[in-house]
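Example 3.2
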Amino acid sequence: MLATRGTRTSTRLGVLGLAAVAMTLLSGCGVVSFGTQKTASASVPSVAASATGSGSTAPSAPSAPATGGTVTGAQAQILAALPKRPATAKAWTLAQDPTAVGLLTPQQFILADYTAAAQASELGIQKERGLQYAARQNWFDQATGIYVDTFVIHYSTASGAQSDYLILLKGDSKKYDAQGSYTVPGIAQSKVFVKAKLDSYGNSMSLGLAVVGDNVLRTLMLNPAAPDHATLTGLLTGEYKALGQ
């Protein structure tokens, strides 16, 4: 088992609660403001784009590295495990590093998933844990008002993935509701955390975690009104099965 050190759970953008009044994401190492992405039928909170993010539309089914190059067989399997964007959905242009979808290098993953103040230190910690690459898909579904941001995070060993999963569980149990969490049926090492109290836009928040071999699955979902357990469970189960389990 690798050492589960570092401040990941206090600096990850996807695993922290929403401040309902100010709509800001707070951590021990930084603050990320939320904006609004509006359509005729729905409005959802959005992480402010990074300084380098262009906000351009992402492909509906990521199939290539964000930096170009050749995709290996293992990488192709992980890319294929990502859910496809619904036909009614569009790119979430105010997300952290909005163009960072598809296959990500360790550096790209850190930029897309950590507060700016923590990125340098967390890159070193994750590399020690054996982080090799990640894959990401996200969207805002205009028909349902649901926001989804999902990662498959790949490590060199199963123990590295296990270490990352356990430290996420430890941190997230403190940031979501004391009740309402559950294990995904058919995935023994999994947990879905919920924050049922609605934010100022009327959204609840759920975070699903699972470990499968040398991969960690993490899916964040913002949902109008009550948490949508069926949709989040389905997303995690689809990725889990696609990775051969």
